[in-house]
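Can't paste images in this forum, so I'm doing it all in text. The chain is below; anyone willing to post the predicted structure tokens underneath?
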Amino acid sequence: MSPKNHYDTLGVARDASAADIKKAYHKLVRQYHPDISTDPDADKKTSEINQAYNTLKDPAKRAEYDALLANPYAGREQAGFDGGFGGYHYDDSRFGDGQPFGSGDFRFDDIFSAFGHARQHRASRPTGPIRGEDQHAELAIDLAAAYEGSERSLSLDMPTLTLEGEMTYARKTLHVKIPKGISEGQQIRLRGQGLPGFNGGENGDLYLKIRFREDPSHYVKDRKDVWQRLNIAPWTAVLGGHIEVATPAGKLGVNIPAGSRNGQNLRLKGKGIPAKEAGDLYLTLNIELPRASDDTARALWQQLADHYAQG
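Text version of the structure:
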């Protein structure tokens, strides 16, 4: 009986398209997620599913893997046929705020460094220490974390070396401190959390690139300026007034100028992300028209229409 391969793991044919592979992967990850599945081997199966996907989603790795399937005895050790394709394993990891791993907060797909590279170092048997490769990923955070600072915890099945010098996986929980004032695109460096070194070489580092989670009420521009829509009543736009606004920087008192226009921007200097040089907060005015839901309201709107018609 032939050993199970990555295509078998995902339940797809060897000529499956990239779209079919991705579809099968997402279906299986949901099926065997430990929060849902009652399968006692859910953790193991999830790791196998992600290992298979990490190989087959990458055209170069898939081509190399297909070649090994066609001739399994050629280059078995160097290529890592024992499962050593890809970098970190998917795991039922969670952030400290309870967001599920793989929900969009942590871009696991961005962490890749083929074991083939590591195994080539070992196969060549260098005489000196070799530093492990750095790894890169994205971490999504709320704007509140950038304004106030925060911490996250995530658990990963990470590549490591056994005492015999073999590459394997071990679960590790990483604690990430997000400093107040961090801007989009900035990287957090986790020293020594990349791929392991060889011959006494130090581990590589893991770099987490920050991106802000999508929010319909806010967006970030130029990495540290924050834009927010502010709904106001027509009479406030016409007459002006002082209102309190809930913003990522807290509740702020804002003066609305008389004669304000729809789409007009109010700039609150220094109320953007509190980086070394703080960004600004821009409030985009959105004039909301109240509904004429009864006769009294309709009569008032008619009076207003008549008044301006006479002018």
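The first strand starts at residue 106 and ends at 107. The chain is about 30% helix and 25% strand.
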